[in-house]
Amino acid sequence: MRPTHFQFVALLLCAWSFQECVALFNTTIVSPYFNISAVSIPSQKFNVTSDSPAQIVVSEPPVGDVFGAQLEKQPRLQSFDQFGNANDDWSEPVTVTVRAMGGQDSDLQGNRTISLDQGIANFTDISLLKSGVVTLEFNCSTCQKTAHAQVEGRLVLVGGEDGRGRIVSIGSTGNCTDMAPALPLPVRSVASSSKTPVFGTFGEKARYGGLVMLDSIGNEPFVYHGISGTIDQALVIQEDGQEEEILLSGSFRNGMATLRNYELHPTIAPASGMLDPPCVKAMLHTGSSMYLGGCFTRVVNGTGVFGVAKLENNQFYGLSGGVTKNGAPGVVNALAAFNNSLGMHLFAGGDFTHAGGVSSNGVAVWNIGTDQWMSSVGGVSSGMVHGMAVHDFNGVATLVVVGDFTINGGYSGIAEMNIDNGPFTLGAFRGGQSISGSVFSILSRPGQLIVGGNFTRPTHSSNTMQWQGSSFSALQGCTSDIVVYDLKVLAPIVPTTNVTGV
Questions:
Q1: Which residue of 16, 262, 300, 323 pairs with 330 in a disulfide if CB–CB is 3.0 to 4.6 A?
Q2: What is the C-alpha to C-alpha distance for residues 108 and 374, in angstroms, rounded to an integer?
Q3: What is the pLDDT of residue 44?
Q4: What would the mean pLDDT of 235-258 be, rounded to a whole number?
Q5: Cα dist. 382→198, 352, 389, 478, 480 in Å?
Q6: Pairing state between β 108-109 and 127-128
Q7: Residue 27 to residue 37: CA distance in whole angstroms
């Protein structure tokens, strides 16, 4: 019997490639001439092991506590080979070194060399003798890449009660440390840099302003006078290649000043002239530009800039007429920025009804790319906005707005706006939450949203609360009636109980 055309092609294919032949006939080929079957041959037993460590990853980042004390949360690292496999069977010393501006290994105390145990390195007694923003660097002899982790400082809240100022740091377990328990006035803002570790600003309803600073080298903390007026905000910035500096804003001469290495420097008037009146309540640094909000109405020697302006290339620029309230100049108390699919946007919050002629009740949206105000839906029906922050709720970027206000539906104190894409609509926070009283500050960090202010009793038991996913609850520790004006996360801090009076 002669083979068919198909059988003939199959024979040629099998002669060319056994694998193709097997695939064609689904493992077994039966023909009038021969049978071919795939046969599995077991190999010798072998073990798969990971290669030597090529990199280490910080699985639990460190959290700073108090200057000179052991880190509140010690770093934990895990090693991986060059293929990304966990080295759970490798043991090798891992060395940790401190890297910071002007930092030395002597700034770090404790056992800095830990051996991997099943691919894990757990440090237990690391402490820092340096304030400011500190970066830890981890390495091992076979690692192709080093690991880095920035030490996250304690949460610090500032405010006052009964005419007294408070700077309070809160540990991860709720333990509290009064940084300056005897200040003469409520503290409005707090900031820190590697050169000026911790300070508060105060001066509201006073003939003078002041700074309280805590010295990183262990000297007595001190209160420093140098500004005649009110300091409302402190902002740490760092230009490319430059050291950190702290910008101060408020109602004083020129409305802005700079603090470098404990020295106060007045802001040099730009070529366009300074803002008038000198009333700057909010600052936002976006790299090449500085955006300012406040109650100013014009630039000296220049045109009107109602409530919001941009400082760029030593010139002040208005934002298409700024903000107004029923035809009069409006006030901007808070600024935030976010880059979504529609471009980079600036968000302004305060006391106004229009932005550049666009209806914007209390919250306005400026498109930085197109230099124009955008329309938004909803808004504040009464009252004003004091603060705002961008927070991530399960991958959705949301602008959270706080203050003394009511929105449609009767919700008060807090609201939200989805800013991942348009339209920008201000609505009830998380579907219907309210805060009774005044909300002055808000802090967003991964997995945590905290608000502070002067909240109504007995509706709220504390003036500092955090979001728990379905409701707010009092922040653990420090639940006294401090009126909270600012919330920040600062680098490791120097404890103190003595402050020079004024």
A1: 323
A2: 50
A3: 56
A4: 79
A5: 36, 10, 20, 31, 29
A6: antiparallel
A7: 6
Distance of CA 216 to the CA centre of its chain: 23
pLDDT digits (tens, 9 = 90+) for 293-327: 999 998 866 677 899 999 888 888 899 989 999 99
pLDDT value at residue 336: 96
Q: What is this structure's pTM? A: 0.73
In the 8-state DSSP scheme, what is residue 9? H
Tokens, residue 247: 């910008």
d(CA 58, CA 67): 22
Using alpha carbons, select from 63, 96, 101 the residue that is nearest to residue 216.
101
Task: Give the bridge partners for 47, in sequence order.
Answer: none
DSSP 139-176: E-TT-SB-EEEEPB--EEEEEEETTEEEEEEE-TTS-E
Q: Return phi, psi of residue 458, to 5°.
A: -90, 10
Euclidean distance between CA atoms 54 and 255, whole angstroms? 52
In angstroms, the CA 163 to CA 206 distance is 11
Compute the distance between CA of residue 388 and CA of residue 390 in angstroms, rounded to an integer: 7
Of 453, 417, 414, 451, residue with least CA distance to 434: 414
**What are 114's two structure tokens?**
């830990």
